[in-house]
Amino acid sequence: KMDDDDDIPQLSSHTLAALQEFYLEQQQREGMKTSQGFNQYSIGSIEEDWQLSQFWYSDETALCLAKEAVLAAGKGGRIACVSAPSVYQKLKEQEGEDFSVCILEYDRRFAVYGEEFIFYDYNHPLDLPENLLPHSFDIVIADPPYLSEECLQKTAETIKYLTKGKILLCTGAVMEEQAAKHLGVKMCKFIPKHSRNLANEFRCYVNYASGLD
């Protein structure tokens, strides 16, 4: 009788060692997260997925945008983050502030945030849950995943559906004309930074008197 183990492909000892090392590192990372009272909302707790065109803001930028959103939304305000998870994460760290927030995001890893997570695909801009009422957010922060007019135009439909009026858009400097055309927003002086340098110059655009100038 043949040995049962024969048909199981064996990994070379080198591959096995590398794999064990990888798992060990992963466990250590996870261990660090738990031992440091790791905050699931901190930037980087979910790593960037470049295939989804994700680039997290630097800590300072995310904090600046989060604070701006809280001010703009006002007391008890509602904030929507469209494809801007690092701002959402910073908003969740703002203890004691009186506001509520939703995250509309294509990446289902953000479903760990529970009821505040809404799956969102910009190709279907109005394919939103029924309980997400039109014009129910005091401010919408959006960072369309691609620098294309099509992506901006479709995301703009979502933004206009959600917002009571205020819009904070983050996108490339090259999109200035399209941003004005589709959303009536103007470029601010504030320059958003990413945790890794992007080749494209990035800017913020608003349609209200913000603290970003």
UniProtKB/TrEMBL annotation:
Question: What are the protein's GO molecular function terms?
Answer: nucleic acid binding; protein-lysine N-methyltransferase activity
Q: Which organism is it from?
A: Rhadina sibilatrix
Reaction it catalyzes? L-lysyl-[protein] + 3 S-adenosyl-L-methionine = N(6),N(6),N(6)-trimethyl-L-lysyl-[protein] + 3 S-adenosyl-L-homocysteine + 3 H(+)
User: GO cellular component annotations, sorted alphabetically?
Assistant: cytoplasm
One family name in Pfam for this protein: N6-adenineMlase
Q: Which GO terms describe its biological process?
A: methylation
Q: What is its main location?
A: cytoplasm
Q: Which PANTHER family match?
A: EEF1A LYSINE METHYLTRANSFERASE 1 (PTHR13200:SF0)
Q: Where does this one sit in the cell?
A: Cytoplasm
Q: Which UniProt keywords apply?
A: Cytoplasm, Methyltransferase, Transferase
Q: Which InterPro entries match?
A: DNA_methylase_N6_adenine_CS (IPR002052), Efm5/EEF1AKMT1 (IPR019369), Mlase_EEF1AKMT1/ZCCHC4 (IPR041370), SAM-dependent_MTases_sf (IPR029063)
Q: Which domain of life is it from?
A: Eukaryota
Gene this protein is translated from: Eef1akmt1
Q: Could you tell me what this protein is called?
A: EFMT1 methyltransferase
Read off the lineage from the record: Eukaryota, Metazoa, Chordata, Craniata, Vertebrata
